[in-house]
Amino acid sequence: MKIRKRLRKLNFDKKRISIRPQITQQTLINIATVILGSFLFSIGINSFMIAGNLGEGGVTGLAIILLYAFEISPAISTLVLNGILLLIGFRFLSRRSMYYTIFAVILMSLFLALTETWVVQTDEILINTVFGGLFIGLGNGLVIRIGATTAGTAILARIANKYLDVNISYAVLFFDMIVIMLSLTVLSIEQVLLTVIAIYIAVKVMDFIIEGMNPKKAITIISDNPEALGTLINSEIGRGVTMLDGKGFYSKREKDILYVIINKSQLIRLKRLIKKYDENAFVVVNDVNSVLGNTFI
Questions:
Q1: Angle of helix 189-211 relative to helix 125-145, nearest 10 degrees?
Q2: What's the predicted TM-score (pTM) here?
Q3: Tens-digit pLDDT profile for residues 61-86
């Protein structure tokens, strides 16, 4: 009886659970990025690679082989083949990544169909090679940068990156080269070699988009005047400095080591500052591909 009375007192009408997904500004940016990336990828395939009778790597490369051999539209074959790989991807990738990937796969097939007649006519095959690789790399890079993939071997590459800590771009290159070997059944050796050049360009562009659009530098400074130098970096460069404890192996002297992350554009200014106030400072500069926190994004 007591339990019933308590339940009656509860007002269930006022306790509503919101199941409406929150769409943030970042989500809209991600969606726009996937749309743009899928569109650029499709232009690279139809307008340059297929127009120049070249191949491609991954699932799209298999779709092009089917096009040359059986005249099957890449828009259809990529959708089917990517659908199979998506079933595998569900087991290894995050739910968020898969949602964006499904969206990218549908858009890519749609754009491949819409741009099927967008052909760049040129007598210079290198134009198709270079710009095909450029557009494919831009498209893939934009999609992968927000955590999705264009499916195909990109799913296998993300799995390799997750479990083997392999660079995504070079994992894609490895899987693409397998498909390139199969392309010899419908393409000449010259066309395959030009395709390899286009894929290499695509990988380098994709690598730049994913990791190098806003490069950072990690600076390690060993100085006899760490306090003064750290204060100058704070005031003149406008970046926070971390002070670490160090000890010379030979001298056994204890020293404070400065560690700071800066934008690449600030490197020359920092070097001048260090040289001006401590010419004997020992400075190590390392490339940094990703930084989070402390005003870095």
A1: 30
A2: 0.69
A3: 999 999 999 999 999 999 999 888 88
